[in-house]
Amino acid sequence: MPRQATIRYSSLRSSLVKLPLSLYAPLLEHQVRPQSVAVHLSAIINGKRVTAHLGWSGLASASSLAQWQQRAAPSSSREASFETVEVDPQLASSLGFPEHTVVDIGLLHDLPVAQRVFAEPLSSDDWEIMALSQYRLSLIEQELHANYMEESLLSQVRVAVVGQEVDAWVLGRTRVRFKIVSIEPDKGPSLLSTDTEVAIAPKTRNVVAAAASHAKRKRSNASQVDSRRSQATSAVSKSASRLEPLRVLPASLLHDFAAPKVTLSTMLVSPAYSFSGVEDGAVVRVQPQRPAFVRKKDLKVDQTPTSEETAHKVIRPSNGTPQPATAKADATAPKWHLARLQVHRQVPDGHAVSLGVPAVDDWDIVTINPTTPEDGDLAPAIQWPIDATLPPVTLAGVSYLLDEAITVLANTLTVQGTCSNRTLPAGTSGLLMLGRPGSGRTSVSNAIAGRLQRDQRFYARTIYKDMGSLAEDRIATIKDEWMTMLDRAAWASPAVILLDNLDTLVGAELEHADSSRQRQLAEHFISVFGRNGRKAPGVVLLATAKSTASLHPLLLSSAAHIFTSTKTLMPPNRDARRDIVAELVKQHITHSDLELDMGDPINYVALATTTEGYGAADLKNLVAGAVGLAAMRETPALGARDLEQAQRDFVPLSLRDVQQGKRAEVRWSDIGGLHETRRVLRETLEWPTKYGAIFAQSPLRLRSGLLLYGYPGCGKTLLASAVARECGLNFISVKGPELLNKYIGASEQSVRELFERATAAKPCVLFFDEFDSIAPKRGHDSTGVTDRVVNQLLTQMDGAEGLDGVYVLAATSRPDLIDPALLRPGRLDKALLCGMPEEQERLEILQVVAKKIAVDADVDLTNYATRTDGFTSADLQALLYNANLDAIHENIADRPTEPNGRGDKSAFEGLLKVTSLGGPNTSAQSRAEDQALQRRMEAMLASTRSKRKQAKVADAVAEKPKVEVHDGHLSQALRGMKPSLPADERFRLALIYDNFQSDRSGRLPAPNSDSSVGQRTSLM
């Protein structure tokens, strides 16, 4: 037996009801699902029975619950004697149930599930909303005014009965009314499920009756209607109006577009555009469709309305121009404008080009309708700029990367276009472009978006935003900005969302800083663009960052599934640098009055060779500086000398933040002996840089690591300094203990940062001095610090990865202590011995050092080369320096003391007189003014004395003879010296080096050694 309840209005915004507590409790006890129950309402109103079948929301009536709690209280009203059922007021009014009506309520179980439901809108207004929704539904599926019509209909309507009205609310705001026409299978009231297919028939707005009515009322002045309006009325009478949404393209995207000369507002369409009843040249109504979503920040209400009827809402459309609309007007129906329809063969299908149509901007969605006699006359065209056809984007050196990235994004857009709304995955797929600062990742990303914008398959709109500009905004503001960008892109899809410098906003978490903001932003980013976000077909994401390590790891996780592809923009090689410089010079010559200097032609190949390590931004700045130098001359002509002069003091971006070791001015000629070692160093380091084109064709992997080992003081560090100077490479010197840190992970981080510095400064020589102190054999360290350093070095110097442009040079006197894994090919490929100098090599060393000091021509250096057996290179250098110092001391002792020439300050006191020009000065100077004037005069005199003194010193130095080193000085210095390496130490080291050269198996035995002082051993 059905129960009775009272209708209570509640803003539910769905075709569902809340049950009385007496019905709710048993359903809850038996765990009945709301989707399997239908609610039947019946009442006699005005002598007529009114019935309705609705769904259950799964909740109990709040008013019924409150009444149940107050049941003990006396009540005299008839309403209090019945429980309540809550229904949405708009739905109840449409069904014919006034509030407080007593109805019979019953529950229907085991109803059949409908396979297909056919419905139609109750009015043309509802259909116009649906028409826009269905058009955008094929391109976007997100929480907009339209796309979720099918999903929201199934979630808000659970019971269908032929002939009954059902209501659905889009985004909880816009109400759309439907009437059920038929159900398959037709078995009476049926339930709706996720497998039910809902089909909605169109209901167009018929303007024929309106036109006929208007003609009848204005028959008396019909003769005043011009011929153009008569043609439009005739066209309208042939067929009903039909919405044909078109996408407005910028005219600059069309290839060789020739804009026709028009004086009236004109809308260009493609020849395939079919519009029944309207021909080429007819006058139509153009109505721009604004997105139905309205965000809080975009909604402003007039604070001083004159009345309720004149209150206005200002809605900011996608182009940023405020559009007023009355409170009763629909936000999706902005004002229309008259325009002449003209067919143009260059306009693609589904698109249009606006020529002077008011309030119609590029990338708008417009609908075109026939005109009516009430529409008025055609307005003249407004002034609008037509840009010339955009030239193709040309970026030298990155054509391969452009093609790969465009292929990835184009395939994504193509696949999205072939998927149905049900099979399309949620979220936005994208591509991540990586590159260090100055590599040109922003320019490359803009070029990718520009190519997709010109692609005739997509004409994808670009929505660009620099994430660095949002770094100081609140998290809620940033999330709303991302959602707005996605909304704009979805409305104008196909579209590309370009997020530049994403890592500046959603960066990686720092170890010793509060990273809660970065994590919240990463989670919001995933909620908007990730797989749990909204469906956005026709929208791809393109983001730029410095590296994957600079981004928050959540963005790159498999759960987010945002960036399906990653492209890294590598520094340009020599050929790419040549092409970039040539293209930059060409652009400057084309867009300015500058000319090329034919007498000083530019050698682009040579310039590319000398700009190793330069990025795209560096080359751009270099060419701009050269152009500025050329423009300052009377006859502006760009030549090779301008580029050379601009390069002298130019520092690339990659080296501005890199701390480099001080490059010593050491040349090969400053090193005596070591001929074989120098030859191998030149072949390994200098030749690949100097003859890069030849070595690039070699199929073999080039050596990138060298080990210099030998006796202490035999020139290992000096050789490394000469390599950096002679080979034109950047030089970073590292002392072994600098990398060691007692904290776990700190030493490995130092090694990683060191190789990052070297990679940023490439071509670069990374020199490890005392290499045995940081890379000893693993397992011999009680703390484990050096073991972890060795592991990190093995990772960085892995032969599989290789070090492109980074050469590792290590020096040690104990190669037997180094971990054998570092000595294998692929890491330290070659070991070079710096042995004790022979007699001829000692003579060369003495001759090289003698060039730096004044040595008497009668000195026989061959004699001293013979007498210095067992001396190292450092000992020989110290011999000549000591002899030079003895000569200087002898010269100073024989020279009389010279006066210093300093004057006494007191001698100038009282000699300062002030002369006043321009007539007598009657005012007396204060003591402070007099002292200030004296200080100024003393400073002037002191400056004059300093200049005179410097001139005297320079003359004295020029006239003073150089101190020469004689044979006696060398003999005296030799008598006071002995070899720094004793004979037994040389013998022990020679044994170590012989074993090292003959056995590189990795099980190097510990050499036999005595317990002499200074012996180094590993901890066992």
Provide an overview of this structure.
With 1020 residues, the chain is of the alpha/beta class. Among the domains are: 3-108, Barwin-like endoglucanases (Beta Barrel), CATH 2.40.40.20; 116-200, Vcp-like ATPase, Chain A, domain 2; 399-568, 3-Layer(aba) Sandwich (Rossmann fold); 574-656, Helicase, Ruva Protein, domain 3 (Orthogonal Bundle); 668-835, P-loop containing nucleotide triphosphate hydrolases (Rossmann fold, 3-Layer(aba) Sandwich); 840-895 and 961-981, Helicase, Ruva Protein, domain 3, CATH 1.10.8.60. The chain is 34% helix and 18% strand. The strands form 8 sheets. It has a 6-stranded mixed beta sheet with strand order 2-4-3-6-1-5. A 6-stranded mixed barrel has the order 13-20-14-19-15-21. Strands 23-24-25-22-26 form a 5-stranded parallel beta sheet, with helices on both faces. Mean pLDDT is 75; it is low at 75-80, 133-147, 207-242, 293-334, 901-912 and 1009-1013.
Q: Which labels suit this protein?
A:
1020 residues; alpha/beta; Barwin-like endoglucanases; Vcp-like ATPase, Chain A, domain 2; Rossmann fold; 6-stranded mixed β-sheet; 27 helices; 34% helix; 18% strand; elongated
